Amino acid sequence: MRRALPPLNALRAFEAAARLGSFKAAAGELGVTQGAVSQQVRLLEVWLRAPLFERHNRLVVLTPAARAYVAEIGPALDRVAAATERFGAAADVVLRVNAPASFALRWLVPRLARFQAAHPGARVRLETSNEALEALQAPYDVIIRGGPDAFYGYSACPFLSEERLPVCSPALLERIPLRTVEDLRHHTLLHSTSLPRLWEDWLARAGAADLQPAAVLSLDHFYLTLQAALDGIGVAMGPTALAAEDLGQRRLVAPFDGPRLPARSYCAYVPEAKEGDDLTLAFRAWLQGEGNGPPLSSARRR
């Protein structure tokens, strides 16, 4: 059945003028001119076929029927506003994620389309940081860091294991063969400044602690180190999880099977207050599935 509803703008103008007792005050609240409020009230009076105000010079007084009318429509407009706000909040769900820059660029971002395809109503707001979890100021739904560690107020969920071993481009090996660990003395070793001892630890395990390379290049993020390796600049101590797709596509190769340096797993840390949030838990479960699944390149070929 068709509803007999008056113009909404006219209702808003009337309700504001009735509540505030002034066309001028209503105009200020609604962000329009006093004349616009007066015009909308007159429009409503025409639609209702009855006066709403008794006008006495600059003073306007509600008629008895108008007082009863505004008592009904005022709460109704409040309910409309509240329902609209709730709808907007539900329709604009934001999942706030914080992850290290290298992990985000090399592993998470290429996979995010799959999560968003499964949750089309959600928006992921991804921020990168290498700060310790306790040092983060902004609230996040999921924080990705190494672990598992115990943090008060958070649950930890490991989802991706990690190791480190030398990687380089096939083109580099064509120029400078790398058949034994000793051949590294002819190469540039690429370092990540966040973990400066990786090459030292690996060479010690490989029995070549005293080896001196041809050159050393230090970069401040793993993704820069891996990019330098892809560009044939040198040999990087590659994190296997972040280099998995490049290794699978042979854009990078691992010239030695070992030794492999153990590394901390990637973990999803979720605040206890978010343990009941469906979207947060869905993202955590998705991370576990992606971490246990095939490399992205294999998934694309299926």
Automatic annotation (TrEMBL):
The keyword Endoplasmic reticulum does not apply. The lineage of its organism: Bacteria, Pseudomonadati, Pseudomonadota, Alphaproteobacteria, Acetobacterales. The keyword Transcription regulation applies. This is LysR family transcriptional regulator. It comes from Belnapia mucosa. InterPro entries: LysR-type_TF_proteobact-type, LysR_HTH_N, LysR_subst-bd, WH-like_DNA-bd_sf, WH_DNA-bd_sf. Belongs to the LysR transcriptional regulatory family. It comes from the Bacteria. Residues 6-63 form the HTH lysR-type domain. Keywords: DNA-binding, Transcription, Transcription regulation.
